[in-house]
Design a protein that fits this description.
With about 1150 residues, this protein is an alpha+beta fold. It is built from 29 helices and 22 strands. Strand 18 and strand 19 form a beta hairpin. Helix 13 packs parallel to helix 17. The chain is flat.
């Protein structure tokens, strides 16, 4: 069946390909005939036109010659004025340079003075701190003097009391004198310490005087700063060091003072006892008062110096203000000079351009004369050749008709073969039934085998248990055998010894059997005690030997018994079944399982073959119908192109085309046999950013009342549904001025991106509406509704204008991304009057993407049989729907499309706080609260093909595989690049320094090395694009999203995704496993998914719908994955952290 089926499929494929080729040939021949006829008519018309033009050109030549003479004169005059203007420009440039140098000097002086001001403020702060410290010291000294006075009074009282006691203690004077002498010595020591303290205090006073001198020097330096700036800076630096040293000395002396004060208070406690100490204490008090007076005078002088310094600061500030005013005046003067220079340059350029125009006009006139003559000659030759070609084409047409008749015959033969195949299939079905009967018999045999197998298993388990018991006994026996072997060795060793000892024992036995001479032993005991002891010991040893020999004999008997047991066990084990039988049983079990799986697979294959046969028969009939329909509809519907391009960058598309295309799709569905009455909901995706402008008639009659209208687009044009017949689409680039106006109104591209999710792009609808309002204000006023392509198609299904859904509204620069409502400020700016006017034209606030807009209009129900309950989901743009169709559902999922232009989409868990202008952010159409960020790269597959050159894709892959990662990056800019914003130019290659723990650096390479292990041009291009996408996604769009969602998917699609090495590089860069997708109809599939979820939401079964969607997407994903290499991912991770430096190199060289 498989072989016959393959043969039939191959034949059908060949026949289909031959039919397609013949139809293509027929269409091409018909086109060539029509084109030839058109060219003949055009050639005749051109010949007549050329003859007229020759006559006109001859008359114009005479006039042009007179004009050229006048132009030469004007050219000479303009050259003179141009030379004078250049001289004036040079003078102004010199003045500009002088003013710029003066400004630079003033700026430098201001910077230096600011630095000096900071230094001075720091010095004043340090001085204020020092003054506060001095105040604290003075306060402490005052407290000490007060305490000393109190102690002096207390000592005087004690002295009077002691004087009274002295009269009473004259009897003990001798003892008191001795004590007095010792205490006097102590007092002398204390006096010495006091003198040392006084010296330290004097030193501290000298240091404070030195410090005050330094302060005065600083004041002198401040006054001379304007004259000697460089010298002043050095002296200030030295003065700061000295001040630090002085502060250190002060702190040291303060510590020493505290220590000495402690000693001083200890001495005062001893002075309380003695009378002579009172006078000395009074002297110290006087000295302390004098010191206090000196310190107070010093403090007053410091305050005066501080006041002087503050005055000097005020003077410096006034001078700085004057310098700033002068700088502003100079800057204003420079701006005026620049404006004058620009105006003069513009005048010069205008004169130069007028001169060039005149010269070019003269050259064009001459070239037109020459080309006209050449064209006349060429046209005559072309007419002759085309006549010959027309005759040939007639012959070709006759041959094509003959081939068509032959193909019809072949079709009949194919149909007969199909009937034969159907008969064969019926016979094969009989054979399959017989196979089923055999399978049932085999199943019964398998059941019997399974029963016997279970019995065998039970026996096997019992045998396994016996085996385990026997193995345990064998292990024990082995242990005994090991012991027995040691005993055997001992036996061999002891056997030899025993033989020698047996002889000794026999002899000793003989001696023992002899009667013992007791008297002799007694004599020995009495005469020689040592020999008697030895003989006694020998006798004991002989008895021990005899006992040991008896034990050896017993052990030998036990060893022989164990050996016999071991041999019997060994024989019993040999009789038992071994592990081979167990392995055989496992193999049999596995074979049974394999057979069962094969049976199930065969059943599934048989069912699939039956389904495929039915599908093939249905496909053949459907293809016949489609062939006829294509022949009828192709010439009528697809003759015109879908877009109209103009030289100013405008690209428009007929609005009626969308209605006709929608009707054509539904007609095809009906002809294909689709059950229209069973359709529950209709969803769709439209070209994003395109717009359609409807009149007031469209709000009432968007569809005809008569269901016999065959072409909706034509009917809508005739009934005035559109105020603008050709609306702008996404390829339009003519709104650059409006984009700049909108950004300046909002406050820059960053502010606009934060508000609407993207900066102002030329293709976005809001800028297109602004241009339309400015250029055609009257038509704009007559426009009742403004629709996107998606909302217009939904409106055609509903019969009345529908709202825009918020996913598609994000591509207009009109919607606030945070609230998902129209921005009133932007709408008012675009409308020019009020925001409500534009919001009413848009149909109100944006709609939920998963909401139902209504039911299908009666026109569609009556004409095509739709159910009255069939609902319409709000349509969305192609980018949001494609994201859903590709499976971007969860946060952190990333989709990379490697096509003509590379794109990268990432699902964000929430709205970014500040959406970057580099990305286009829009709400997720089926995940409320989530967002999708989209990156677009202009130079995509073209760059990879340039690098590939003449090599095959296999050689391209080998170059990547054989080279090491993270060495070089290459960026091609064949056209203007969006990310980063670069001008067109030559490729840029950068060497990466990624060694050790140092920061990654990038170096520009002027000469490219040859491809090898260290450098691969193929790898450098792929790595640059992958690292750029990772940098923008993980650093600018959503910082840290790769680390936040490590389980997110990485999906790769497009032509580049077919290359395994490219997928591996993306896997290593992102650190995720890559799943490749091949879904050309992702936008349509995503729209169908969205309609399914909208229906489930309306019915209250949204969770079941989401689960069904998840299962369907996981089933359609490719099972083969590229897993990341951990070492390569670590290298790319370090490079991505410093990728901003590479972007800086690119912007510095070619930024725009």
């Amino acid at each position: 069946i498989k072989a016959t089926r393959k043969e039939t499929e191959m034949k059908l494929a060949k026949k289909r390909s031959e039919i397609q080729r013949e139809t293509q040939r027929r269409d091409e021949s018909a086109k060539e005939v029509k084109e030839a006829r058109l060219e003949l008519s055009t050639v005749r018309q051109e010949r007549e036109v050329v003859a007229r033009e020759l006559h006109d050109v001859e008359e114009e030549l005479k006039e042009e010659e007179d004009g050229v003479r006048d132009l030469y004169k004007e050219e000479e005059r303009l050259e003179r004025t141009y030379k004078l203007a250049i001289d004036e420009k040079k003078k102004l440039d010199r003045q500009l340079r002088r003013e710029i140098t003066k400004n630079d000097k003033i700026v430098k002086e201001n910077v230096g003075k600011n630095i000096e001001m900071r230094i001075k403020t720091e010095e004043t702060q340090s001085l204020s701190k020092a003054i506060k410290g001095m105040d604290k010291l003075i306060y402490l000294c005052q407290e000490k003097t007060d305490s000393l006075k109190a102690e002096v009074g207390r000592l005087e009282k004690e002295n009077e009391e002691k004087k009274e006691k002295l009269t009473e203690q004259q009897a003990a004077s001798q003892r008191s004198k001795r004590a007095f002498d010792t205490r006097r010595k102590r007092l002398e020591d204390l006096l010495r310490e006091r003198d040392l303290l006084n010296k330290d205090v004097l030193k501290a006073d000298d240091s404070t005087k030195h410090w005050m001198d330094l302060i005065r020097r600083h004041q002198m330096m401040c006054s001379n700063l304007d004259r000697e700036l460089e010298v002043g800076r050095k002296e200030l630096h030295h003065a700061q060091k000295r001040a630090v040293d002085v502060e250190g000395q002060i702190e040291k002396h303060a510590v020493e003072l505290s220590e000495e004060n402690a000693k001083y208070f200890a001495a005062l406690e001893e002075v309380k006892i003695r009378e002579g100490r009172i006078a000395e204490v009074e002297k110290m008090v006087g000295k302390a008062e004098a010191k206090l007076a000196q310190q107070q005078s010093l403090y007053d002088s410091v305050c005066a110096d501080r006041n002087l310094y503050s005055k000097s600061l005020i003077d410096c500030n006034a001078e700085i203000e004057e310098i700033k005013k002068k700088f502003k005046m100079a800057f204003h003067r420079i701006e005026q000079l620049k404006d004058e220079v620009r105006s003069k340059e513009a005048k010069l350029m205008k004169a130069h351009f007028e001169k060039n125009k005149m010269t070019r006009g003269n050259a064009r006139v001459r070239e037109s004369l020459e080309s006209a003559q050449e064209r006349i000659e060429g046209l005559e030759s072309i007419i002759a050749t085309q006549k010959a070609e027309a005759e040939k084409l007639q012959v070709v047409v006759e041959d094509a008709e003959k081939e068509v008749s032959s193909h019809e015959k072949e079709l009949k033969s194919v149909l007969s073969e199909r009937d034969l195949l159907a008969n064969q299939l019926s016979s094969r079905e009989v054979e399959v039934r017989k196979l089923y009967e055999k399978i049932r018999l085999l199943e019964s045999e398998l059941r019997q085998g399974a029963a016997s197998f279970n019995d065998l298993l039970k026996d096997r388990r019992s045998a396994d248990r016996q085996l385990l018991d026997l193995r345990r006994e064998i292990d024990e026996a082995k242990l005994h055998v090991a012991e027995g072997r040691t005993f055997i060795q001992q036996k061999m060793r002891l056997g030899k010894e025993i033989k020698a000892e047996v002889l000794k024992c026999s002899k000793l036995q003989q001696e023992l059997e002899r009667p013992m001479n007791v008297h002799r032993w007694r004599r020995l005991q009495s005469s020689d005690m040592q020999t008697f002891e030895r003989l006694k010991r020998v006798r004991e040893l002989q008895q021990r030997l005899i006992q040991a020999q008896e034990e050896v004999v017993k052990k030998e008997k036990e060893i022989t018994a164990k050996e016999s047991e071991f041999m019997s066990l060994k024989a019993a084990l040999q009789k038992q079944p071994g592990p081979e039988i167990h392995d055989q049983i496992l193999l049999l079990q596995q074979a049974v399982k394999d057979k069962q799986t094969q049976l199930t697979v065969l059943e599934m294959n048989m069912q699939e073959y039956r389904q495929q046969c039915h599908e093939n028969s249905a496909d053949v009939g459907r293809l016949r119908k489609q062939m006829k329909e294509m022949n009828d509809d192709f010439i009528e519907k697809c003759r015109l192109s879908g877009s109209i391009k103009e030289s100013s960058g405008e690209v428009r598309s007929p609005s009626a085309m969308f209605s006709s295309a929608l009707q054509l799709c539904i007609q095809r569905l009906e002809r294909a046999g689709c059950p229209m009455e069973k359709i529950v909901c209709i969803g769709g995706s439209g070209q994003q950013h395109g717009s359609v402008y409807l009149s007031t008639a469209a709000t009432d009659h968007l569809l005809p009342d008569d269901d016999n209208v065959d072409d909706l687009g034509k009917w809508q044009l005739e009934n005035g549904v559109f105020t603008v017949k050709d609306g702008p689409i996404w390829m339009d680039t003519s709104t650059s001025a409006e984009c700049r106006e909108l950004e300046s109104y909002i406050g820059g591209s960053d502010a606009l991106a934060k508000l609407t999710g993207s900066k102002a792009w030329e293709r976005f609808t809001g800028n297109q509406i602004l241009k339309f309002r400015k250029q055609s204000s009257g038509v704009y006023e007559r426009t009742a509704r403004i629709c996107l392509v998606s909302s217009f198609c939904a409106s055609v299904l509903l019969g009345h204008p529908a709202r825009v859904d918020y996913s598609d509204a994000a591509g207009m620069n009109l919607m606030e991304l945070s609230s998902l409502n129209w921005s009133r400020g932007i709408c008012g700016f675009v409308d020019g009057r009020t925001s409500d006017a534009l919001i009413s034209k848009l149909g109100g606030q944006p709609a939920d993407s998963m909401a139902i807009a209504g039911t299908v209009a009666p026109y569609w129900q009556q004409r095509y049989g739709f159910s009255p309950v069939c609902s319409v989901n709000y349509w969305s743009g192609d980018n949001p729907c494609a994201a859903v169709g590709m499976g971007l559902l969860n946060s952190g999922d990333i989709l990379v499309s490697l096509g003509t232009s590379d794109t990268c989409l990432c699902v964000l868990p929430s709205m970014p706080l500040s959406p970057p202008p580099s990305a286009f952010t829009f709400p997720h159409p089926v995940k409320p609260g989530s967002y999708i960020a989209m990156l677009v790269y202009t130079n995509g597959d073209v760059t990879r093909r340039i690098v590939k050159g003449d090599r095959s894709w296999d050689e391209f892959s080998d170059s990547i595989r054989l080279s090491s990662p993270g060495n070089c990056l290459t960026l091609f800019t064949s056209t203007q690049e969006i990310l980063p914003a670069l001008e067109q130019g030559d490729p840029i290659t950068v060497k990466i320094d990624n060694q050790g723990d140092a920061k990654v650096t990038f170096y520009r390479l002027e000469k490219l090395p040859k491809d090898g292990s260290d450098y691969s041009s193929c790898r450098a291009v792929v790595e640059e694009r992958a690292l750029s996408m990772r940098y923008y996604i993980n650093s600018e769009v959503a910082p840290g999203i790769l680390e936040q969602f490590p389980e997110g998917k990485l999906l790769v699609t497009g032509g580049g995704s077919r290359n395994e090495q490219i997928r591996q590089v993306f896997s290593d860069v992102f650190g995720r496993s890559v799943v490749s997708l091949d879904s050309p109809d992702a936008a349509a599939l995503g729209a169908a998914y969205k309609a399914m979820l909208a229906t489930a939401k309306q019915r209250g079964t949204l969770k079941e719908g989401e689960q069904l969607l998840q299962d369907h997407i996981s089933a359609t994903e490719n099972a083969s994955k590229n897993l990341p290499d951990a070492s390569n991912s670590a290298i790319y991770g370090r490079i991505s952290q410093s990728y901003a430096a590479f972007e800086k190199v690119l912007r510095d060289e070619r930024g725009r």
